[in-house]
Design goal:
single chain, elongated, 5-stranded parallel β-barrel, 300 residues, mainly beta
């Protein structure tokens, strides 16, 4: 007879386990250049391109979430994980009651993406042609795509870019930025994260860091502009030997060394500076550090 006492408990455990791991099987027709919006609070998000005019979603829905659906039409589709009580996506007290959700999406190769995640790592692979916009709090973003425009705004999650972005705006607070194939228009910004980037030819590159170190290599476009500012992070910039532009560098208390001309010590007070004309001088390169070291090198 005692065993009957445990039957309700076992039923509750079984129901709870089922709700915590509800399989997702969704699909919706989509245009080749559809705009797809994705939102997840916790778990993972993986987006893979394919050669079908369809969006497919699989994975598992965490307990405490509303039943998932694809809303919108063939041109604009939305897949968003929301709390079951309908209190809103950024209600932190209720979001913590939601178990992690795993989203695995296939989207048309030329689709554009708008992704919002809180503590969900993000992977985007194979997209070519559409714009990508990512807003992340703590999950790392790994993006392998050929995109005309990439924007990533992250707090503590790092950003890793493969493929190519013609225009890139990558911002983090403490996450690292690794971007070996940046295009012609670039903005990089971090507080304490490390930045390692390559690319160009750059028509416009703006880079700002507080304490994160910077390693940057690339080519300046004709009449291009590079502007780098660091508080305490070290900066290393590599440029081709045939670079053309006015090169100006300065550091208040850091060590300044350059393969393009010699740095000059300030006559009064600390600091050193560099100003040299490279080639025809049509472009502009300006680098400033406060206490971080500055090293300007010729590429081999």
């Amino acid at each position: 007879m005692k065993s009957t006492r445990y039957i309700p408990l076992l039923l509750c455990l079984c129901i709870g386990t089922a709700l915590a791991d509800t399989p997702i099987h969704l699909h919706h027709d989509a245009s080749p250049t559809a705009h797809v919006s994705i939102g997840n609070v916790a778990g993972t998000v993986t987006v893979i391109a394919w050669d079908r005019n369809e969006v497919q979603v699989s994975g598992s829905l965490g307990d405490g979430s509303k039943p998932l659906a694809i809303s919108g039409n063939n041109e604009r589709l939305t897949i968003k994980v929301e709390p079951r009580d309908g209190s809103g996506w950024f209600n932190w007290s209720n979001n913590r009651k939601m178990a992690p959700t795993t989203l695995e999406l296939h989207v048309p190769r030329a689709a554009s993406l708008d992704v919002s995640v809180i503590s969900a790592p993000l992977v985007i692979d194979g997209l070519a042609g559409g714009n990508i916009d990512v807003d992340s709090v703590s999950g790392k973003s790994r993006i392998n795509a050929q995109t005309p425009m990439l924007k990533v705004d992250s707090v503590s999650g790092g950003v890793e870019l493969a493929g190519h972005a013609d225009q890139a705006d990558l911002q983090t607070v403490s996450g690292d930025i690794l971007a070996p194939t940046l295009g012609s228009e670039v903005k990089l910004q971090t507080v304490s994260g490390r930045i390692q980037a390559n690319g160009g030819p750059w028509r416009r590159l703006s880079l700002s860091t507080v304490s994160g170190d910077v390693q940057l290599a690339g080519k300046l476009a004709i009449d291009g502009d590079i502007d780098i500012d660091s508080m305490s992070g070290d900066v290393q910039l590599q440029l081709p030997a045939d670079t053309s532009g006015m090169l100006r560098g300065s550091s208040f208390s850091g060590n300044l060394r350059s393969d393009f001309g010699a740095a000059q010590k300030q006559r009064h007070g600390p600091g050193s500076s560099l100003e040299v004309r490279l080639g025809d001088g049509r472009g502009r390169i300006n680098i400033e550090t406060f206490s971080g070291d500055l090293r300007i090198r010729k590429q081999d």
